[in-house]
């Protein structure tokens, strides 16, 4: 202490500085167009971003997968870059990496997303490869067999991972068995094993067409003749337009209950507590974003203030809302959830405290100061969050995928700033009602089941696997 | 304090420049202007990491990093987080073998707040540090350890490889997260001493990058940091030098409840900051980076014996770097089959070197990674600090990609032949067992 005192006396302290004048910033408004083949195009020039991001969205939704073939959209997405009519799988990967590019493709409920990142100097070449993958994938039997086997090998790794296992269980609990959302996005051992090249090609031919797809291109496009590059690449994609598929209604059973996935000997319990709620089309979205941030957006939010910074039960617990799928009519939904992990002996007390945080929030509401901090953060971090081309492209593609206008994100910031404390409280309280939450715990049932039962947060069942 | 002149952009720096300054108390400052986005990144590297820890106190540097967010003389409780986030900024801190860094990315008009906050804790952390924070953050860090390492399959693999590759007593033998026993043993007085020893302006580099006015920024830095006394109580880390190669193949078989067999290995590689290290980076990229690498093509595409196969590089300046091989087997494939294929590929690569196409691909991949890192103000601030702290010259950050592009195929082959050999590696083999068979010795005593 003496040393500390010595250094304190010799340092000059100054009062906390006041902020300067904010420089205006707005989420970029993209240019929207269409190629002759019907492909929708969004572009945004971002000076200084030398790595260009390209996002392709193809509305090939998971619920379009044929019965018994869950995972075919995933295998198709992966197979796009595993050989074309001009190149073998190895040659394609080599050419792509020669551009210094990365290419990722994945399938989710709304459809397939293909993401390319490449230094701008090699954009034309990489766009050529991306187009080849979309227009003329080879789908060779041997490559599809390999991808199927590789996917089957991945499943045990996902099952062993506590957070992946929890997510799988929550989907199974929430959604009716006939809903595609109740089952793993990338399929199960049984359905993946049934996928072959013919099934992949049939899915591709039914849904992958330029007329329903969108391309987003973001980066420093100085000196790039984008029209010409696109005409030579994605412009060569042909295909008849497809009728858009109607989105099935999304329903969920959020009767309050607890499911423990037994992991004997686990030193922590992974928790995932969720239900479904409003998507971005709903007027409540900005208030829900604000309220959810106050509940569990960061380590100074209500949950971590108690569970981490007061009790030390966890490295961090977060509350979030993640859109599952939307349509233009506003029938979409998002997953609203609280997730984190807590040490095994404190699982009961941690859940007890978590519920108490929710009850207190419902009884007393948010404070104006909390709301103010949340708005300052959510709005203020936008220029940092959207510094890179990839982050801008990702959000623009999300908007397309969710049938939102191109200025949605820009407007959201204005709406967040206008949302009051009362609205934010109402939104978060109705998003996380204490008696309508499904709790999945991946942990040691022998140690945690009884303490959790005593909390009275719903019937407790234990499953294995 | 002399004002640095604006440097002219060096070739290959992408037009980026940085100026260097030093306060009277020894704090080194690096500034870099970029007005494209109204944001500014503040990054502070303290030249202390887990390599400075002593026996029985592993994990102390990282635990201490958590305590830096628990308030200081003028900042109460979680005020550091609250004030930065409330100003529309983002922040964090991380601890590695060789350094501890703290960073805030702010909207430009809130830059001064971040500087004030960093100065307050550099100068007066001990005014607020108490038992309550210590006990709380000890529990948080133990839960961090459980979440990131102990409760996930293969979660302790890196820790085990490190312990094999750097011998007992070597400063890099243990990883920054530390052991549960040592985390339990750390005292408030340990934390205080750690601060007094290492958290001094003359043991740190501060970089500020982005939409800044350099003269104004430097004036703020002088105002807030200038009166923090320097001190020289720092103990140098224990000697990290080791023979260039391990000299024998070290091996550990782990029987644990994991989903598949795995072959992992750590190779001793040249120190960060050398041309040989860049050559090693290229060698590992050709062999095990991305989906066109030799190991991916061989094991995942052709033999179909692995679900994933790749190489990573942990660059280290104070000890040999570490090349990390990670192969997860497919189905019921046995490890010896994988190992034979890996050895064959490495031996062939050492004998033949990379093809011109492979060199082009590897260099293009590493170039993109550099563009990504320097493409954000926070990434640039961190790299400027890294080169200043570890190599004494922040300007090296702006030309790093040129050095990677200048490496020749012959140099890549030479480093592979010299280092990627069976007698220069520590091998870790995972053999899955059912839940009740797993050897839980290590977990006992940990979770007390």
Molecular structure report:
The complex is a heterodimer of chains A (465) and B (448). With 465 residues, chain A is an alpha+beta fold. Chain A has two domains: 31-236, Cytochrome Bc1 Complex, Chain A, domain 1 (2-Layer Sandwich); 257-463, Metalloenzyme, LuxS/M16 peptidase-like (Cytochrome Bc1 Complex, Chain A, domain 1), CATH 3.30.830. Chain A has 18 helices and twelve strands. Chain A has helices spanning 2-10, 72-79, 89-98, 123-135, 141-160, 162-174, 189-193, 197-207, 226-232, 285-296, 302-307, 347-364, 368-380, 382-385, 389-401, 408-418, 421-431, 445-454; strands at residues 31-34, 40-45, 51-58, 102-108, 111-119, 214-219, 257-262, 268-277, 314-325, 333-343, 438-443, 459-463. In chain A, helix 2 (72-79) packs across helix 8, helix 10 (285-296) crosses helix 16 and helix 13 runs antiparallel to helix 16 (408-418). The longest helix of chain A has 20 residues, at 141-160. Chain A is globular and about 65 Å long. Chain B has two domains: 19-225, 2-Layer Sandwich (Cytochrome Bc1 Complex, Chain A, domain 1), CATH 3.30.830.10; 250-437, Metalloenzyme, LuxS/M16 peptidase-like (Cytochrome Bc1 Complex, Chain A, domain 1, 2-Layer Sandwich), CATH 3.30.830.10. Chain B has helices spanning 60-67, 79-86, 111-124, 131-150, 157-165, 180-185, 188-198, 214-225, 275-288, 294-302, 335-352, 356-374, 377-391, 400-406, 409-419, and strands spanning 19-22, 28-33, 39-46, 90-95, 100-107, 204-210, 250-256, 262-269, 306-314, 321-329, 425-432. In chain B, helix 1 (60-67) packs across helix 7 (188-198). The N and C termini of chain B lie far apart (52 Å). The model of chain B is unreliable at 1-8 and 439-448 (pLDDT under 50). Chain B is built from 15 helices and eleven strands. Chain B is an alpha+beta fold. In chain B, the strands form two sheets. Chain B has a six-stranded mixed beta sheet with strand order 1-2-6-3-5-4, sandwiched between helices. Chain B has a five-stranded mixed beta sheet with strand order 7-11-8-10-9, with helices on both faces. Classes of the chains: A alpha+beta (465), B alpha+beta (448). At the A-B interface, helix 1, helix 3, strand 5, helix 5 and strand 10 of A face helix 2, helix 3, helix 4, helix 8 and helix 10 of B.
């Amino acid at each position: 202490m003496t040393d500390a005192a010595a250094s304190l006396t010799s340092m000059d302290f100054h009062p906390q500085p006041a902020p300067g004048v904010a420089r205006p910033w707005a989420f970029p408004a993209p240019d929207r167009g269409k190629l002759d083949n019907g492909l929708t195009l969004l572009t945004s020039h971002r000076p200084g971003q030398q790595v260009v991001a390209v996002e392709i969205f193809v509305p090939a939704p998971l619920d379009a997968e044929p019965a018994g073939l869950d995972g075919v959209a995933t295998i198709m997405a992966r197979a796009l870059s595993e050989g074309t009519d001009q190149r073998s799988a190895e040659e394609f990967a080599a050419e792509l990496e020669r551009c210094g590019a990365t290419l990722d493709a994945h399938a989710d409920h709304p459809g397939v997303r293909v993401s390319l990142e490449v230094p701008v100097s090699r954009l034309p070449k990489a766009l050529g490869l991306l187009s080849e993958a979309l227009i003329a994938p080879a789908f060779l039997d041997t490559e599809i067999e390999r991808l199927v086997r590789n996917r089957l090998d991945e499943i045990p790794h996902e099952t062993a991972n506590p957070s992946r296992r929890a997510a799988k269980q929550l989907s199974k609990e929430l959604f009716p068995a006939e809903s595609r959302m109740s089952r793993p996005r990338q399929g199960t051992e049984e359905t993946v094993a049934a996928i072959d090249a013919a099934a992949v090609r049939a899915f591709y031919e039914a849904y992958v067409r330029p007329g329903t797809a969108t391309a987003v291109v973001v980066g420093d496009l100085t000196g790039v003749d984008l029209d010409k590059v696109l005409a030579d690449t994605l412009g060569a994609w042909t295909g008849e337009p497809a009728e858009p598929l109607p989105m099935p209604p999304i329903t969920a059973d959020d009767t309050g209950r607890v499911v423990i996935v037994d992991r004997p000997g686990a030193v922590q319990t992974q928790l995932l507590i969720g239900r479904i709620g409003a998507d971005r089309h709903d007027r409540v979205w900005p208030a829900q974003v604000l309220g959810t941030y106050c509940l569990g957006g960061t380590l100074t939010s209500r949950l971590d203030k108690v569970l981490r910074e007061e009790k030390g039960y966890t490295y961090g617990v977060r509350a979030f809302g993640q859109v599952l799928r939307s349509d233009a009519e506003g029938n979409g939904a998002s997953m609203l959830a609280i997730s984190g992990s807590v040490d095994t002996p404190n699982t009961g007390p941690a859940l007890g405290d978590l519920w108490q945080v929710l009850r207190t929030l419902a009884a007393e509401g948010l404070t104006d100061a909390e709301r103010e901090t949340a708005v300052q953060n959510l709005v203020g971090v936008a220029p940092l969050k959207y510094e890179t081309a990839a982050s801008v492209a990702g959000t623009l593609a999300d908007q397309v995928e969710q049938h939102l206008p191109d200025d949605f994100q820009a407007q959201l910031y204005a709406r967040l700033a206008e949302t009051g404390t009362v609205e934010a409280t109402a939104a978060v309280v109705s998003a996380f009602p204490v008696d309508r939450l499904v709790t999945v715990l991946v942990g040691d049932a022998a140690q945690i089941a009884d303490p959790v039962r005593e909390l009275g947060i719903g019937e407790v069942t234990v499953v294995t696997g | 304090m002399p004002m640095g002149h604006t440097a002219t952009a060096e070739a290959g720096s992408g037009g980026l420049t940085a100026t260097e300054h030093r306060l009277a108390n020894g704090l080194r400052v690096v500034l870099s202007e970029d007005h494209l986005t109204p944001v500014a990144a503040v990054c502070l590297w303290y030249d202390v990491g887990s390599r400075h820890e002593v026996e029985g106190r592993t994990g102390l540097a990282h635990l201490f990093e958590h305590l830096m967010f628990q308030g200081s003389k003028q900042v109460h409780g979680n005020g550091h987080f609250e004030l930065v986030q409330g100003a529309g900024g983002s922040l964090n801190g991380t601890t590695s073998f060789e350094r501890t860094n703290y960073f805030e990315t702010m909207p430009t008009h809130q830059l001064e707040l971040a500087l004030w906050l960093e100065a307050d804790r550099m100068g007066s952390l001990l005014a607020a540090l108490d038992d309550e924070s210590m006990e709380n953050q000890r529990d948080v860090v133990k839960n961090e350890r459980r979440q990131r390492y102990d409760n996930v399959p293969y979660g302790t693999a890196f820790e085990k490889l490190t312990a094999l590759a750097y011998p007992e007593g070597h400063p890099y033998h243990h990883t920054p997260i530390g052991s549960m026993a040592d985390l339990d043993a750390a005292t408030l007085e340990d934390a205080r001493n750690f601060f007094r020893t290492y958290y001094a302006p003359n043991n740190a580099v501060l970089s500020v990058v982005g939409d800044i006015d350099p003269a104004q920024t430097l004036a703020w830095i002088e105002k807030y940091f200038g009166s923090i006394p320097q001190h020289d109580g720092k103990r140098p880390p224990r000697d990290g030098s080791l023979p260039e190669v391990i000299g024998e193949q070290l091996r550990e078989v782990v029987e644990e409840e994991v989903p598949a067999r795995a072959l992992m290995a750590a190779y001793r590689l040249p120190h960060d900051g050398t041309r040989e290290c860049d050559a090693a980076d290229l060698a590992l990229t050709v062999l095990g980076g991305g989906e066109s690498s030799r190991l991916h093509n061989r094991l995942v595409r052709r033999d179909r014996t692995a679900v994933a196969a790749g190489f990573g590089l942990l660059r280290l300046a104070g000890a040999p770097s570490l090349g990390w091989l990670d192969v997860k087997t497919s189905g019921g494939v046995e490890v010896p089959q994988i190992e034979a294929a890996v050895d064959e590929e490495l031996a062939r690569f050492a004998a033949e070197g990379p093809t011109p196409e492979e060199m082009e691909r590897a260099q293009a991949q590493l170039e993109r990674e550099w563009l990504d890192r320097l493409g954000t103000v926070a990434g640039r601030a961190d790299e400027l600090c890294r080169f200043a702290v570890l190599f004494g010259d922040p300007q090296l950050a702006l030309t790093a990609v040129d050095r990677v592009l200048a490496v020749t195929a012959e140099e890549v082959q030479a480093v592979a032949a010299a280092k990627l050999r069976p007698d220069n590696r520590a091998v870790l083999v995972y053999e899955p067992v059912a839940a009740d068979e797993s050897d839980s010795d290590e977990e006992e005593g940990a979770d007390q």
